[in-house]
Specification:
Blueprint lengths: L1 H68 L7 H15 L10 H86 L4 H34 L10 E7 L4 E4 L12 E5 L11 E12 L2 E9 L10 E3 L7 E5 L12 H10 L3 E7 L2 E4 L7 E4 L9 H17 L3 E3 H8 L32 H14 L1
Parallel strand pairs: 7-8, 7-10, 10-11
Antiparallel strand pairs: 1-2, 1-6, 2-5, 3-4, 3-6, 4-5, 8-9
Helix pairs in contact: 3-4
Length: 462
């Protein structure tokens, strides 16, 4: 009995151990299965993310292929790489390696097109300027023809009057000659010497009348020529402008006999008559840098209407102009006579001073070839007789020669000269040496390749 119970108990213990062992094993397998399923789920989610990223990359690749080769293309990435290499070898051989890209080639080609557009615009502007000049010349010719016609009519009147006077003189001389002949005949003697003298006097009188008539014609022609101050054309134009530095470059230089320290008014490139155009600033020459280039300081500008490349420059003094000066000259409103200062200013700008008034003294005189009489403050009744008389001499000569008169203020305004031209006005836009193109003006940075190309062109022009 005892032996049977022992084995039965032993069997139960063994069964229990086996049951526990199986339970533990099942639990371990269950946990491992759960971890495996979770890991598989994570891998599945990662795969979905990878598939999404791959799809985005493929879409981006297709978009890049479209941008490079156009819409739908079957070219492979290798094909596109080969094409890129071919394009770089064709258009960017001289580019730095860091710039051998489509964007660099496009920037270079775009700038080349801009240069061509600028050249075309400049040629068109020159054509417009030439047309405006021809129109003004036609208008001036019409005025001149009318003046010549009027002068011709006056000459005809003078000729008729002189002919009448000449006929009267001839009749009087003939009468005297007849009277003398009768006297000689009555006296029974001959006086050939007296008759010959009378004939010589008659011939001399005729010659003097002809000379006087010729001089009168020339004087009237000169008066007609100077009668009207016609439209003024620009002397040159602005090439480059740097408002931040207050500097500009113009297209006049040593080949144009540009004097150092010359001043110019600046007008919009659309202006055709500098005499009546609206001024937008002024510049002052500080250095002549080439046959057709000079550096300037900007002495005035308008920030709301800034000076731009292509704007025109003008001075009434440039171009071998002749001047006379009358009246009290006070350039800076300090009550001191500045006539000597004005003479030096005109001469430093290339002008010629034919004569001027210094208080009651007349230095030289106004000539027939004088282009302008500059009028300062007119003398009043309190001025000395010498001052008034000297002023009258100049204005009378200007009236006789029909010389245009210009006030001191208007002259300085058109020259672009102010009382303190050392001050530089900041404002407007800031540009590097790049050409202005219609409808496209930038004050920002410019491609280095384009700048090198422009600098080479500028050096070749110089």
């Amino acid at each position: 009995m005892f032996k049977a119970t022992f084995w039965w108990n032993f069997a139960l213990i063994v069964f229990f151990l086996i049951t526990v062992s199986l339970g533990v094993t099942l639990y371990v397998f269950y946990q491992m299965n759960m971890e495996t399923e979770m890991h598989l789920q994570e891998l599945s989610e990662q795969q979905v993310i990878k598939n999404g990223e791959l799809m985005v990359m493929e879409n981006e690749r297709d978009e890049y292929k479209k941008k490079i080769a156009g819409e739908e293309t079957k070219m492979t990435v290798q094909d596109l790489a080969d094409e890129h290499r071919t394009v770089m070898e064709k258009y960017a051989t001289n580019f730095a390696k860091s710039n051998q890209s489509y964007s660099s080639v496009l920037a270079y080609l775009y700038n080349q097109i801009q240069v061509q557009n600028f050249t075309l615009d400049a040629n068109q502007q020159d054509a417009n300027d030439l047309k405006a000049f021809n129109d003004n010349r036609t208008k001036y010719n019409t005025v001149s023809l009318d003046a010549v016609k009027k002068s011709s009519e006056v000459f005809t009147e003078d000729k008729n009057r002189y002919s009448k006077v000449l006929a009267e003189i001839e009749a009087d001389l003939n009468k005297q000659k007849g009277d003398l002949e009768r006297l000689v005949k009555a006296a029974g003697t001959s006086n050939d010497t007296i008759i010959k003298k009378l004939n010589n006097d008659l011939a001399k009188t005729n010659e003097e009348i002809k000379v006087q008539m010729g001089s009168n014609i020339r004087t009237r022609q000169q008066l007609a020529k100077n009668n009207t101050r016609v439209s003024e054309v620009p002397n040159g134009k602005i090439l480059y402008i740097s408002a931040a530095q207050g500097k500009a470059t113009i297209n006049l230089g040593s080949a144009d006999n540009l004097p150092l320290n010359a001043s110019f008014s600046v007008y919009s490139n659309s202006e055709t008559d500098m005499k009546s155009g609206k001024k937008k600033g002024s510049v002052y020459v500080t250095q002549v840098t080439g046959p057709h280039s000079a550096e300037c300081v900007v002495t005035s500008d308008i920030p709301s209407n800034p000076i731009l490349p292509g704007d025109k420059i003008y001075s009434p003094v440039i171009g071998d102009r002749h001047f006379a000066i009358a009246g009290f000259i006070d350039m800076d409103n300090n009550g001191i006579n500045d006539v000597e200062k004005l003479v030096k200013l005109l001469e430093s700008n290339g002008g010629v001073v034919d004569g001027y008034q210094n208080e009651g003294k007349q230095i030289r005189r106004l000539e027939e070839t004088t282009n302008f009489l500059i009028i300062g403050k007119r003398p009043d009744e309190s001025a000395s007789e010498d001052v008034r008389m000297t002023f009258t001499n100049f204005t009378k000569a200007a009236y006789e020669f029909n010389t245009p008169q210009i006030s001191l203020e208007q002259l300085l305004q058109e020259m672009g000269v102010s009382a303190n031209r050392a001050s530089v006005v900041q404002g407007g836009v800031d540009t590097q040496p790049i050409p202005y193109t219609k409808g496209n003006y930038s004050g920002g940075s410019v491609s280095r390749l384009y700048m090198e190309d422009q600098n080479n062109q500028q050096n070749n022009n110089d």
